[in-house]
Give the backbone structure.
Amino acid sequence: LKRIYVSLLTISKAKCVLLAVNYTEDLLTVHEREVAEMKVYYSMHEKILKLVEKRECYFHKMIEFEVSLTV
């Protein structure tokens, strides 16, 4: 998948880690824990995430088709 669907809370926590000025061992541990959790989440929900991505692709193609009809 090119992207993963996560909550806004997860995104805001990730931004805090990425924007940190001092990278400490504790911060690295938090980051590694988050990565491990996301991998578990993805493996548990891989099938549905791929279907969501496929649906999104078809939806964008439908919009492009509709736009081409109105032009």
